[in-house]
Amino acid sequence: MSTVPHTPTEASPFAEVRLAAEAARTAARVLAALTEQQRNAALEAMAVAIERNAAAILEANAEDLRLAQSLLASGELSEATHSRLALTPHKVTEMAAQVRAVAELPDPLGRQLDAIELDSRLDLEKLSVPLGVLAIIFEARPDAVTQISALALKSGNAVLLKAGKEVERTAGTLVRLLRAALAGTAVPPEALALLTGREQVHHLLQLSSLVDLVIPRGSKALVEFVQANTRIPVLGHSEGVCHIFVDRSANHELALRVVDDAKTDYPAACNAVETILLDREIAPALLPPLAAHLRSRGVHLVGDGETRSLLGNAAVDPVADWHTEYGDLTLALRIVADLDEAIAHIHQFGSAHTDAILTEDAAHAARFLREVDSASVFHNASTRFADGFRYGLGAEVGVSTARLHARGPVGLEGLTTYKYILRGAGQVAGDYRGPNARPFTHRRPAGAG
User: Fold this and answer.
1) CA 233 to CA 251: how far, in whole Å?
2) Which residues contact 259 (CB under 8 A, 6 or more apart)?
3) Domain 242-385 is of which CATH architecture?
4) pTM for this model (two decimals)
5) What is the pLDDT of residues 332-383, one digit of tens each?
6) Spatial contact of 91 and 117, defined as CB atoms under 8 Å apart
């Protein structure tokens, strides 16, 4: 897309996006000054609005699902994306519960991250503060609206939501209800806004002076498009190519249970496992029952030559690409010589999202946890635990595989930055240089830093 600046007119879509972003910036300043009690009261009002209007939310979602059928038939929408779109009464109840779970979390703002005495009566503090205005671009997930809104407002940030066309009706209903709920609280309704239409993404990505962070949630193509077309910092991951290495000392029953959950619990999720690596020493004993169990669960298996030879070529298709996020009931199998080869495979083909080892060997587990450079690394647990709610973050705005600012499931802490506060008594920089310079004490109080 072109990033040539566009001169807005009052009637242009760019002007509409800019006005929403300017209103969000103003609301963010109000929001940042509110107390934790005021922000929590707003979240409770949002949760109540979700519960009281469940029927309207489900009706809008049913319309999205009806329209999505044509997108699915034409190939514009994948099965994985379509599966994320559907809401149920239980999911709506969960959405309200997640908003309340965020409200119950400790206040992320105003935390003292460090304190240093520079000199007598010259004290420096490092305090957590909001980022400002967030722009979240997401596909298919209706519950992303409530999760993101709750996390943003709790952390003192305004948020601009850009929903994919397949979820626009559900998202529109949710945002309308949530803004109406905010109108009766100290949080300005303008702190939450919804943008629709593909063209508005182009305009939103130009607003580097108004938006502080963009978080794309969706396909690899979406994330790469956002990263390539904005000067705004981007937080996100482009793929979830997650691995489980089954070590030679793994408990076989545990392995079947964990692999089953990691693949079949929710195959469309970015934390679902895509590749199983088996130690060659246990492959002859474990692979046949593992493959039989997975096939009984509807899993389509692809694998390397050694896997196909052990199971019979007809039972397993050849793997096309080890760096593939299937997002469905397809699972790749590879036999490796040992722990070293497993780690090398993950570093070559993984996406630094979530990887796990199944082993009863404490030394092997320790090496894997230390050497695999992913945002989440597990021992004897399903990759499906890589989730903000399960991590106790209340919810998440997304998963980051970057190494700067935030990594893994991003909750409240990932939506804050910090500023330095200096309290003095008339000191000037000149006092601390020259032949009669005062010395800095640079002393940290006990427990600071």
Assistant:
1) 44
2) 244, 246, 273, 276, 290, 294, 358
3) 3-Layer(aba) Sandwich (3.40)
4) 0.83
5) 999 999 999 999 999 999 999 999 999 999 999 999 999 999 999 999 999 9
6) no
